[in-house]
Input
Amino acid sequence: MLFNPNAPLLFDLKVPFAKARPSPHHNYELAGGLVNAFALGPIGSEDDLWLAALEPPTTGPAAGRPLVCANLLDPFGRRLLVLEFNRPTFNPKGCQVAAGPEGLDVRDPGGRALLTIRTGRSGSEAAAVSYVQGLLKDRTGAVRLETRAAAGRSSLHLHGPLAYGIGADGDVAVDEGLGAEATRRLADLARRAAGHEVG
Output
């Protein structure tokens, strides 16, 4: 049977707004909705892809900017780059990382975009919104993060174990298979971000 785009869906494709914990000062676009923070993969693992996009503090140099911790892999599933609050802590191949008020730009050693985040505001009182673009795969080659584009808009989609709606105290509103150890590590990152231990 072919897909009928005019038929009503049996489920909502967007992130449930009530569970997403949108922030009054900064959010990430995820699957057509806004979330204060999200995480993907086995947080803290040294041999697999993971990414945590955290809610930035409200004051200090990181205020209003996307805040990313990640373990990124090359096309062969090998560890390529580790980011801790937007700063490379493992970068043997010389990936390019540029972080600033407008977002984050991560490029592989050949200059190809790995991960791009652009941040903007829709009004003077509105929260900043960060839009993530990229195509990231885990060590088996499975796509775990991808950007889908439609009519000039892009939307981020995650696959595999993930969480979103991450509080400053480390609690998680929605956990879709992260596991106890990854959730504990994510909570530690969220507390550090909220405690202004980033610059």
